[in-house]
Amino acid sequence: MGSLTADQVETAVLQATAAPSLRNCQPWLVRSTPHGIELHADRTRMAPVADGDCRELMLACGAALMNLRLAIGSFGRYPEVHTFPDPARPDLLAVVLPGGPRPVAPIDRALAAEIPRHRTNRRPFAPVPVPAPLRRELQMAAETERAWLAIVDPARLSALHELVREAHRRQLDDARSRAEWTPRTGGVPAQCGGPLAEPQDEWVLRDCSGGRAAPGEHVDPLIVVLGSFQDGPAARLQAGQAMQRVLLTATAAGLSASLLSQVVEVAATREQLRALIGGGLWPQTVLRIGYGLPVPATPRRGVADVVLVDEYASARGGRTG
């Protein structure tokens, strides 16, 4: 087995925890051990109503796992991944072991470099279509991680728009959903937002409207559905890795992206979305992709909040692996 220096462990942890998550709730914990780096779910950060089946928690942790794999790969080590390694500890989602040396793949180096540059962008996108070669590149990124990326046909955008609005309405009508996002100590942080619409959300909804733009505007973002061939925790964790590879691929190509979470959070609209894209496959998230202006980074939890300090301190004194 290979090994990582203390500085490499710290870099890998910081890269992992830069992953995107539902309203920036960052639902993960990391432990560094003498054998590798563990990724745990932090259920204190989840939203029990909006994410009652832990779908988005798993997607976020899958994105963190993708970052962890890329970070270790960029060090010239093979990232050996074991998912759900201990049935007695269901919140231990993965252990990543630094394997033997291997040449750094150019794609891994490039994607790892994009981790700190990626931003979720919910602002208006430029009226520039995503070229067909880039669309295929994004689809291949999902397929690399054993997932699929369906580009929503323009003829179906109006139907998707109605599903997004219906999901949004249901969340607003649910008192539990509204109460879930009341700022409180020890739970989902206030900056994670909530079901109430923010001004920029109208741009997101408009982009799913099948071209219902204001006079003089042209709306042509790419709306895609990322999903899996099965459903359940393992499939969602895998889909999260695919989602992050797609997002980093988009970032490397100069594209921006944001997530349309409502339509997947509500069970009824999620089933209708599944039917809309053909049925048989499982939608895990919807992405809006296009060319946007730079946006600031979202706040991140500190290392002390995401790493078990005792193991991390011992790793800082030596090596892992």
From TrEMBL:
Q: Which Gene3D superfamilies match?
A: NADH Oxidase
Q: Name one GO molecular function term.
A: oxidoreductase activity
According to its UniProt entry, this protein's organism is: Saccharopolyspora thermophila
| Protein name, as recorded | Nitroreductase family protein
Show the SUPFAM superfamilies listed in the entry.
FMN-dependent nitroreductase-like
Outline the segment boundaries, as ranges, of region: Disordered: 175-196
Q: Which superkingdom?
A: Bacteria
Under InterPro entries, the record lists:
Nitroreductase-like, Nitroreductase/BluB
